[in-house]
Amino acid sequence: GVIRDSWQFKPGAYSAKNGALFLNSIENxxxxxxxxxxxxxxxxxxxxxNNFGTNIFYSKIINNSIGNYIVEEKNISIVxxxxxxxxxxxxxxxxxxxxxxxxxxxGSNCYYTLLYTPDTVEVIHKQCIGVKAxxxxxxxxxxxxxxxxxxxxxxxxxxEIFSFDRCTGLLSNERHIPLTEFDLxxxxxxxxxxxxSPNNRFLYVxxxxxxxxxxxxxxxxxxxxxxxxxxxxxxxxxxxxxxxxLAPNGEIFISNSSQPKIHIIHNPNEQGVACNFERSxxxxxxxxxxxxxxxxxxxxxxxxxxxxTLTSLTPTLSKGEGVQIILHPNPASTYVEVxxxxxxxxxxSNANLQLINSLGExxxxxxxxxxxxxxxxxxxxxxxxxxxxxxxxxxKLLGKENLIIN
Length: 406
Hints:
- This protein has one helix at residues 2-7; strands at residues 20-24, 31-42, 47-63, 69-83, 89-92, 99-104, 110-116, 121-128, 140-143, 149-154, 158-164, 171-177, 193-196, 202-206, 211-215, 226-229, 244-246, 252-255, 261-265, 277-282, 326-328, 335-339, 351-356, 362-367, 374-378, 385-393, 396-405.
- It is mainly β.
């Protein structure tokens, strides 16, 4: 189509913001599924220069016996319809094994909900709820880190927040933050991105020139708004907030459109300016509009729910069990990656990681978020010697490993 033809020889490749994501095969670690949108124009809507999703496909990729990646199945169509450019969002099913995927239909208030199981990929629901979506709305969609909310940000519709049932795949409890809350009156400013903090409390919304924070636990979410960064019309073209992504280290990254820069929310679990937003961090190369579209791969089963029936297939901890801690590199001189594997934290958990020196003193302590199974520790300022890395939950030691810093 027109979009493919106009983008195929450009450095940005294919124009489909959040239009693709990878999921590991449920049954085979050497297989991967790429879920992706096809973008094209819609002449009958008189939008010849704009990009819309028209299909949801999946392609199957295998890692063969000699380590090469081969496309085994390509462009298997699941949905054929006109979709918005909010992209695809994915969330682990409450059984801890399967995956839900959602994309919004253009020109309506309907959402396609797909289910990926070991046997099939199919549309389970076409659910109509909330406000009507414009076709090209300059937005982004995602699930909260715990999978309890599905959120769609839109330059045409404002922000839609839904509760999500990880067992049934149904949306409910629609809450809407209208565009009037954002006072969009600067040149080339629009709602370009949404992200949720690791602790699931704060929603971040970018309007290209400004960054807002909302409290998802407030009775009036729209009324909880805090302005984190205001627009600067003199340099707006040099930094434009386009898409956001929660990174494995707990920070939120925001892509820039035209400059080799990236923006970072260093402490997104903190309210207001304490979230520590940093603008225009230099990059070695221009990153165009996008960031990797990462769902929460570490999200486990919804323990205690009606669909938590596959716990034997999901790594879990029973009472008295420990965890294996893997350190790399060890010995370490500048940093160490601590991999503690999947930990099914409960809502009342207080998990943390500690670094203890040879005198038994805690020299480093970090709360562990539920979305990741590894953390990086900067050790370059610690004296050389012998240390112990420990992982705790509510005061109970789950695992420990020796570390040498040289």
